[in-house]
Design goal:
By secondary structure, the protein is of the alpha/beta class. It is built from 12 helices and 11 strands. It has helices at residues 13-25, 49-60, 93-101, 118-122, 125-134, 148-161, 183-194, 211-214, 223-227, 260-263, 285-288, 295-317; strands at 38-43, 64-69, 77-78, 91-92, 106-110, 138-140, 168-173, 198-202, 218-219, 232-236, 270-272. It has a 5-stranded parallel β-sheet with strand order 9-8-7-10-11. It binds N-acetyl-L-norvaline (AN0) and phosphoric acid mono(formamide)ester. N-acetyl-L-norvaline binds at residues 142, 180-181, 183-184, 274, 276.
């Protein structure tokens, strides 16, 4: 695997899950694979799980790891070509990328959607500059339109917990006080369709996601109807995708919070969320603390998805 930015890069999902579960049974089996190889993890945005799980995954493979929080301690980076750099940004990405690449073998990038310019976001302007100018394998640690390491961990988690071959998996919008990207729901929808699940997406009118990510899923605007018979409930907030409201909050309708009453409509479904989650906005205390909540094993599987991806990248480097 050269780069890892979307579901297509993982190839056959069943094979990838099998490989991930193999990694999980002995995460130190390939501890020499990353010997003398350096991973650079670059964060333009905050993170708890991605930074810790990806670093741990790299360490399991024997890699050295450098972590840089671009907005804390590094020069502020200009990402736009052609601007007169008379503002607060002291360095351009076009120099910074090859310089950073010279110190490492693989680069992970977290660069959220700006949510102002849809074209820039959906063309993955920042991530693609790393792919184009670094000369190194690059993977997404959540970029503008997707969070593939999260979606891969989500699929591993569903495979570990499902009791029917083709579970009904419901992605539900839920309220949140700040405008959030569509990256997580985009990837979750795309990966769960690719995994062969019966995928239903429910959200208020106006929150339709980009069709390229939701193809193969059913859209149901009635949340309660969507929950009926579900085996997995995956909650997430996102801002509007469609123009003219791109990146905006249209509704903070608290009636969309996932609570016990709605979970009772399901087929005793498991509750999932990528975290971080705002309690009693997205989900009630009761639901997230219930025995059916699998948010912690889901987060733990981030180490496994990251390790499987890094393993494949290292195998290609070798
Ligand atoms: C981010 C998002 O919604 O994309 C990261 C989730 C993994 N969430 C927040 O910013 C709260
Ligand atoms: N789920 C996830 O990516 O979490 P972080 O933003 O904490 O990395």
């Amino acid at each position: 695997m050269k780069n890892f930015t979307t579901v297509a890069d993982i190839g056959d999902i069943k094979k990838a899950v099998a490989e991930a579960l193999e990694v999980k049974t002995n995460r130190f089996a390939f501890k020499n694979l990353g010997h003398d190889k350096t991973l650079l993890m670059l964060f333009f945005n905050s993170s708890l799980r991605t930074r810790l799980s990806t670093q741990k995954a790299a360490m399991n493979l024997g890699m050295n790891v450098i972590v840089l929080d671009v907005n804390q301690g590094a020069w502020k980076l200009e990402t736009e070509r052609g601007v007169i750099m008379d503002g607060d940004k002291a360095e351009h990405l076009l120099e910074a990328i090859p310089v950073m690449a010279s110190y490492c073998d693989i680069i992970g990038v977290r660069s959220f959607a700006g949510l102002t310019d849809k074209n820039d976001d959906y063309n993955e302007k920042v991530l693609n500059q790393f792919i184009k100018y670094s000369g190194r394998p690059v993977f997404s640690m959540e970029a503008a339109t997707g969070h593939p390491l999260q979606a891969f961990a989500d699929i591993i988690t569903i495979e570990e917990h499902k009791s029917v071959q083709r579970p009904k998996v419901v992605l539900t919008w839920a309220p949140h006080p700040k405008a959030l990207p569509q990256a997580v729901p985009n990837s979750f929808a795309q990966w769960s369709v690719a995994a062969g699940y019966d995928v239903v997406i429910t959200h208020p009118h106006g929150y339709e996601l980009a069709p390229e990510f939701t193809a193969g899923a059913t859209i149901e605007y009635d949340q309660k109807k969507a929950f009926e018979g579900a085996d997995f409930i995956y909650a997430k907030n996102w801002s509007a995708f469609n123009d003219p409201n791109y990146g905006k909050i249209l509704s903070t309708d608290w009636s969309w919070t996932v609570d016990s009453e709605k979970m009772a409509l399901t087929n005793d479904a498991f509750f999932m969320h990528c975290l971080p989650v705002r309690r009693n906005m997205i989900v009630t205390d009761e639901v997230i603390e219930s025995p059916k909540s699998i948010v912690i094993p889901e987060a733990a599987n981030r180490e496994i998805s990251a390790q499987t991806v890094l393993k494949r990248m290292l195998e290609e480097l070798a």
